[in-house]
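In response to the reviewer comment on reproducibility (Comment 2.3), we provide here a single inverse folding case reported in full, input and output, so that an independent group could reproduce the run without further information from us. The structure tokens appear first.
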């Protein structure tokens, strides 16, 4: 890498850091709907319109009534459709309702804190990425200034890759621990045996919720077995054909197509199955679910 390319790379990192920082500022700034929401919280609070025993749901409904009225009246001035504003309002509503209620906060204060904390969390992600990009730029500049030997540079790069790999494993482990800890309260409502071997999974049923994961486990195994029975023979036969039988011309044509299919994320394929294949199977075989 000559000096021009080096400084170009460092400059791009710094520009990326600046762009991420600007994006963080924008993410951390409430949009119009969120600003109106916060204003109406202050309005309800100043008018003392909520009884002392009001919960978060009652407070949220009261604020929502004011916000909807304000947005309906000012939609034309904002050069936005009422539907688009209501979609943004629905996103704010979901953000609040999906949070665990903090009993130590007043309902209005809880709603206000949830909205502001959500904006701050979005901004922090961008600030963190901006800091990483800036740090990378300064590390490269520091390495250039110290004029390190090639072996030293290779050791530093190897160490950086090692730290990155360990961090990735640690993050996955922490995610697993987080999910496990957050899921433990379920055993206050169901025993371990009923949870593992129960035949129904209806956690949202208000009258008689069921928390048996046996159908989920059986479904995972059946899907894995069926997909393996289809994919493994086809994959092995395709590999044998491409390696031993196909002509050079056929191999050059088919190989890029196979690599392109392999590069598709499984989430994309799953989404295609959910919106195309599942409805087709549901209609074709009269199934309750695809």
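Designed residues, in position order:
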């Amino acid at each position: 890498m000559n000096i021009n390319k080096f400084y170009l790379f460092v400059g791009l990192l710094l520009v990326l850091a600046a762009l991420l920082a600007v994006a963080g500022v924008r993410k951390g700034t409430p949009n119009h709907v969120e600003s109106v929401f916060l204003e109406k919280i202050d309005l309800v609070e100043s008018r003392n319109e909520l009884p002392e025993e009001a919960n978060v749901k009652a407070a949220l409904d009261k604020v929502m009534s004011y916000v909807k009225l304000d947005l309906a009246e000012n939609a034309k001035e904002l050069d936005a459709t009422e539907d688009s504003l209501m979609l943004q309002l629905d996103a704010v509503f979901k953000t609040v309702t999906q949070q665990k209620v903090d009993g130590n906060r007043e309902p209005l204060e809880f709603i206000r804190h949830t909205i502001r904390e959500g904006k701050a969390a979005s901004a922090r992600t961008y600030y963190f990425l901006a800091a990483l990009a800036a740090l990378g730029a300064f590390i490269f500049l520091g390495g250039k200034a110290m004029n390190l030997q090639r072996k030293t540079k290779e050791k530093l790069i190897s160490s950086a890759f090692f730290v990155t790999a360990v961090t990735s494993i640690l993050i996955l482990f922490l995610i697993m621990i987080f999910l496990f800890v957050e899921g433990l309260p379920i055993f206050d409502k169901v025993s371990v045996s009923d949870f593992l071997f129960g035949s129904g999974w209806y956690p949202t049923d208000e009258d008689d919720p069921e928390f048996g994961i046996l159908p989920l486990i059986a479904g995972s195994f059946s899907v894995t077995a069926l997909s393996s029975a289809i994919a493994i023979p086809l994959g092995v036969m395709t590999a044998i054909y491409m390696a031993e039988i196909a002509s050079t011309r056929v191999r050059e044509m088919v190989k890029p197509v196979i690599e392109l299919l392999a590069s598709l994320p499984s989430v994309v394929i799953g989404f295609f199955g959910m919106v195309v294949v599942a409805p087709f199977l549901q209609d074709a075989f009269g199934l309750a679910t695809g």
